[in-house]
Amino acid sequence: MTLWQSQFEHNLKELAAIESPEYDASTQSVASFKQVSFQSYLQKFINATPGLAAIYPPELEHSILAACNTLYRHPSLVEHLTLMSKLLPSLYSSSVFSALASFMIAKSLNYEAERMELAFLAGLLHDIGFLYYPVSHDYNHINESSIADAAIRAHGPVAAGVIRRLNNAPLHLADIIRDHHEYCNGTGYPSRKSADTLHSVVFIINITDLISRAAKEYAIYPKHSHQLIRLVLLLNQGQIPNEIYRTAIRLILQKPDCIEPPMVMPDIAELLQQRLTICNAMATMASALKLLQKHQAIDNCRAATRIHRQLQAAFQQIGIDQEEYHKWLKQHKGQLSLEVINSFVIQNEICHQLARLFTALTEANKSLSPMEACLKTQVTDLLTTTALPPLVMPAINTAEDVFDTPKMHNSVQNQ
After folding, report:
1. CB proximity list for 396: less than 8 A, separation 6 or greater
2. Which of 121-125, 135-139, 406-410 has the lowest mean pLDDT?
């Protein structure tokens, strides 16, 4: 038994302890996750999630039923979802959202039924690799600095291994799940693959992951959430093929914009401090990138170069490194302003991208040869002194999380 499998078996035992002394993980987990109840749960999930309810026509229910039929032909996958719904409920809810959103994007792209089903299954299963980790907390992708962690970076390949062990698994499903954090501009992980080596459904999972993360971060603004999600997608546009990006934006636009000012504002002092940390981190990492570009083959720091360009575009959008922006932000202290909320989202998104840049620079530096020890020391010194800025979140959160829906085991337990 591998270390990964051993951890999964340990998690099953933890679930058994949660359920009851008589719980038999090998049989009851599948039985408790009844197909008819799952389909009913998906419909309730759509109705309870405004963004999904706005784009889902009732006639798609039959198509989702067909995708569920494929899922239930593989009891081990059902077992994995059962375990995730109980041990990692937040991640499970995000996966359900990803499945439904991916299905709708594939439908809007006029994909054939087989690829629509593939998008649904990949969205639902892409994070089951986390079940092979110690369940110390519910993984949620909020802090992208975690992608520097080799274990986190392995969750896609681990999940793909689960799929490959199945008999008659849907074609391409394992590859899509393995690659679901890869981007078309070669800045994703774990392998920095290029667009021409990736299945198109990979990019659909990419964009639903971005939407899911943004919706969770800004759930305090339920009336404005789709506007803020659209802004996050705009700042990550170069990572997703244009056709898929435009399709997702069109779906989001089906819900009209809210012009009312938000009732809760982020702390201006925290935003100003975050701005300072952002500018310092950007300057330090830009110096590290210049060193690598000057002395190293461009291929080794291509991802870092592209992420840096993406950051430069985000900087220009609000002029974050300009003194005028600093003064403008201070002037809005105590005001209810949608413009400040937009800047707050952009600053937070810059923090995510800085974390990705830090990881890409670290990888490029590690690839230096022993003959480049002096360069490696210089870059290491710069990265060691880099303080990555934390996210800013409003202190008062009275809104419900958009994914705070009934847990699967509650929705099916009594049926």
Report:
1. 220, 264
2. 406-410
Vertex 137 angle, CA 134 and 143, to 5°: 115
Distance CA 149, CA 269 (A): 31
Please provide the size of the chain in residues.
415
Question: Residue 399 — pLDDT band, cuts 50, 70, 90?
Answer: very low
Instruction: Look up tokens 């000012």; give the residue.
Output: 261
pLDDT at residue 148, as a whole number: 59
User: Token pair for residue 271?
Assistant: 């935003």
Centroid of chain to Cα 137:
16
Distances (CA, A) of 413 to 28, 35, 46: 11, 12, 20
Question: Rounded to 5 degrees, what are φ and ψ at 223?
Answer: -70, -25
CA distance linking residue 156 with residue 174, whole number of Å: 9
Reported as a single tens digit per residue, the pLDDT across 6-36 is 777 776 666 555 544 343 433 334 445 677 7
Distances (CA, A) of 343 to 252, 265, 268, 318, 394: 20, 11, 11, 7, 14
Q: Using CA atoms of 223, 226, 227, 231 in order, give the dihedral in degrees to the nearest 10.
A: 150
Residues 6 or more apart in contact with residue 163 via CB below 8 angstroms: 125, 169, 173, 174, 177
